[in-house]
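Bumping with the actual sequence this time:
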Amino acid sequence: MGLFDTLKKVGEAAKKAADRVAKEAKYQKKALEIRMEIKKIEDSVNSEYRRREFEAKKEILAQLKMKQLESICAAKSIPTYRVVTVNGEKKRYKIRNKEELVDVMASHLDLDDVKDIGRRYKLRYKNIIESLERWADSAFAKLEEFKKRKQEELNRYKIEIFGEEAEEIETISVEEPLEEEALEEEEYEFEEEVEREIDIFDILADFRPETVRDEEDFEKQLYQFLRARLGSNVRRQVPVGDQKIDIAISNEVGIELKIAESRSKLQRLVGQVMDYVDYFDEVIAVVLDVGANVDLDNYMRKLQRLGARVLILEGSIRRKGRRREIVIRM
C-alpha cells in the first residue's frame, strides 16, 4: 500500500471518528432536552401535590374547635401568636382567628400528624385523604407514562442519527439525574426561557383573597397563594437595603402590598417602590382599595411612572363592635 493510500485511509478513519463524536454530542443534547422537559413536568406535579396536601390538612384541621386547636399547638410547640412591628418595636399578638391558626398548624404539621389528629378526634378525614391519594395516583401515573413516551422518542432519535451503528451506542435513560456541572449553561438558558413564559402579574390576577383584618393578613394570603403556584422561590419579608419588601420571587420580582386607607400609606408605598425598582427586575404594587378618599388614581400614576405595575383590588370595611374586617369584592 502506497503512502497516498495510507494517508487516505487515516483521513477517512479520522473523519468517521469525528462524525461519530458529532452524532454522540447530538444524541446527548437531545437526551438533555428531554430530561429537562421531564424535570419541568415533575416539578409542576410535585408543586401541585404540595398545594393539594396543604389544603387537605387545612380541611381536616378546620373541623376542630378553637380550644382544641390551641391544645394541639401547645402539645406540639406550634406558636399561637404572630409578631408585628409597631414603631420599630416587635410585639406579639395572640392568634384569635381560627382560619389563621389552621393555616399556621397546616404549615407546621405533616400529613401523618394531621391524620393522627383526625383519628384521635374522630374527624371526617378519610375521604379527604382518599381524594388526595386518588389525585396523586393519577398524576404520577400520567407522569410515568410521559417518561415512557419520552424514552421511546429518544430511542427513535438514536436510531435515526446512528443508523446501523445504533446498537453499538449505549442507550441513555431519561431517568438519569441531571448533572449540574454539565448542564450549567443549558440550565441557565432553560430557566430564562421559563421565566419569560411566566407573567407574575397574570398569576396575581387570579388571586382571590378572603376577608382580611390588616396588611399582614393580606400579605399572608398572597404569600400562600404564590407559594402554592411557584414553590420555594417565593419568600416573605425580604431585606432590601434598610427596608423589607413584602414578597420577593427569585430575587427578580418584588411585590409590595398596601391597604389604601390613607394618603400617608400610599405616599410610603411610592417611597418604597422608588427604592425597590433599583433592586428588582420588576416591581408590582398590590393595592386594596377600601373606598377611602385618598386620590388613588394619582398615586397609581406615580407608581407607574416609577416603572411599577399596579394591581388594584376592591374591598369594603365592615365593623363588628371594636373589631373590623375588610371584605374583598371580586
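The C-alpha cells above came from a reply further down the thread. The mean pLDDT is 82.
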